[in-house]
Amino acid sequence: MTRQLLFEVEERRCPACRSAGSLVVDYERGQVICRNCGTVIRDSVVDLGPEWRKPESSRACAGPIGSSLGEVESGAAKIGDRLRSISIKKFARPMSTPSERAEAGIREFLETARQKLNVPKVVIEETIMLYRRLYEAGYRVPRVEGYAAVLYFVAKKYGIAAVTLKDLIERLGVDKSVFMSAYMELMSLAGRLGIKPPRVDPKIYIPKIVSALNLSDEKSAEVQRAAVTLLERILFLPRLRNGRKPQILAAAAVYHTCYVAGIEVTQKELAKAADSTEGSLRELLKELAESIYVEVTI
Question: What are the pLDDT digits (tens) for 284-297?
Answer without folding.
Answer: 888 887 776 655 45
